[in-house]
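On clarity, I found the account of how folds are encoded harder to follow than it need be. For illustration, here is how one protein appears when written out as sequence plus structure tokens.
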Amino acid sequence: MYEPIRTKSVHTMAGTHESDFPHRSREEELDIQLAGHLAALLAVTDELRALAPSDRLDESAERLAAQVGRLRGGSPPVRATVPVPSGSAAETQVLAQALRRRAHALAGRALVVAASRADTAAAILSAEQMDAHAEAVADAHAEAAATAVPAPGPRQLAAR
């Protein structure tokens, strides 16, 4: 029905061969992608550690650094020192909540990639990070709701 193509593709550059540039396997690409997500999660964890130091965050950061190092062939990840922000307690809480939501999203991305490459250790670590950050966000919302002053209802306004 269709005539076969007899000419070379216009998308093939003259004088180039497939071996002219390096190719990576799917596994190598997933390793790179997973290491990137975990490194970004490590950076956010370091920022959270600067805001509110805790042993749990320290342990998480060390586990994340170990996984990133494993995925990058043993080289440890570069970690920046994060200065302690100077702001009010309310500003610090808002920043911490934003960082926790970001960490939750990054852990979710890492979990998807870890599952697709069948990396059990990274998948477990990512799932634990998602749970920890989701729990922290939920706790902060519950605390904020408990301390919030309820708005007056219509009967209270009419009584005034």
In short: Residues 89-116 form the longest helix (28 residues). The mean pLDDT is 83. The radius of gyration is 24 Å.
